[in-house]
Amino acid sequence: MNDLRQYLDDPATSFAVVGATDTPGKYGGRIYRDLKGKGFKVFAVNPRRETVDGDPAYASLKDLPEEPTMAVLVVPARVGLSVIDDAVEIGLENIWVQPGAESEELMAKLDAKGLSWIGNGPCVMVETRRIA
Q1: What is the Cα–Cα distance from 42 to 96, expressed in whole angstroms?
Q2: Tell me: the pLDDT tens digits for 25-84?
Q3: Buried b (16+ CB within 10 A) or exposed e, 73-96
Q4: What's this model's pTM, rounded to 2 decimal places?
């Protein structure tokens, strides 16, 4: 298991923000734009959107043009459960679970699949604020 915070100091780190959106006030959009504004390569994942912040949006992790360093879950835990399956299928091992996206079932599945993850607390925007 990796401490995912180690990736936050690497400018080559890329993120797939699952739940990215242009809907005002939604954290999926705020996180997407925040990471992008800090210079990270960011992919928007949302099956209900064609674009986010003017960038292409992808229906799932499996549709991304390349594998990101980690996925950031900004979706309800019941949706996150299927995202974990997609991550395993493409070989993505690092998952950041945003506050409010976690559940005991989700965390147990992350452990059962052997994935590295952060959850139950830190927001990726807070953890990367020193980069701004």
Answers
A1: 14
A2: 899 999 999 999 999 999 999 999 999 999 999 999 999 999 999 999 999 999 999 999
A3: bbbebeebeebbebbeebebbbbb
A4: 0.95
Query: What is the rounded CA–CA span in Å between residue 107 and residue 33?
Result: 26
Tokens of 68: 């990101």
What's the distance, CA 108 to chain centroid?
Answer: 18
- Which residue's structure tokens are 């974990």? 84
Listed by start position, the domains of the chain span 4-131
Hey, what CATH class is 4-131 in? alpha beta
Question: Which residues, other chains included, contact 73 with Cβ-Cβ below 8 Å and sequence gap of 6+?
Answer: 18, 19, 80, 83, 95, 96, 97, 98, 101
Dump strand ranges (E) for the chain: 14-18, 41-45, 51-52, 55-58, 70-73, 94-97, 116-118
Task: Give the pair of three-digit tokens for residue 124.
Answer: 């990726």
The dihedral through the CA atoms of 6, 69, 101, 85 has a sign that is negative
